[in-house]
Amino acid sequence: MPSTFDLYKKFAALPQGKRLFSIAYGQKAPYFSSIHLEVQEMKPHLGQVKIPKRRSVKNHIGTIHAIAACNGLEAAMGLLAEATCPPDMRWLPKGMEVSYLAKSTTALTCTAESTETDWANGPDVPIKVKAVTTDGTVTVEGTIHLWVTPKR
């Protein structure tokens, strides 16, 4: 069975491929579809999704809800982990620490980043995450901790 990263590379090469991959990714983990994410980038040590500002992700003050932003951060982290984790290993999220820094008044770009050193120092692998508005304001940032262990 092809890996998620292999599927991304195949889809991304097609017209509308990233849009189609985004839909498929949202169906793989159905809670991701609730934020209507758009996959922007997937490669080793980088995952990036966009959350459009829609009614379904807004809170009572009309901004993107903090938990919707966290959902986007976890989706970005999942892309990174799928593209980075060695094939003989598996990953599981074990915790998330985030700070809410500003109101999310526009669509958000959620980015997850890591380094080779982060992965070499496992099994606890910290993934840096942040959500940024269209004007460049960082609204949420933090770390998602992965537990990376050999497959059985």
TrEMBL record:
- Name of one Pfam family that matches: DUF4442
What is the protein name for this chain?
A: DUF4442 domain-containing protein
Supply the source organism for this entry: Aeromicrobium ginsengisoli
What is the taxonomic lineage of the source species? Answer: Bacteria, Bacillati, Actinomycetota, Actinomycetes, Propionibacteriales
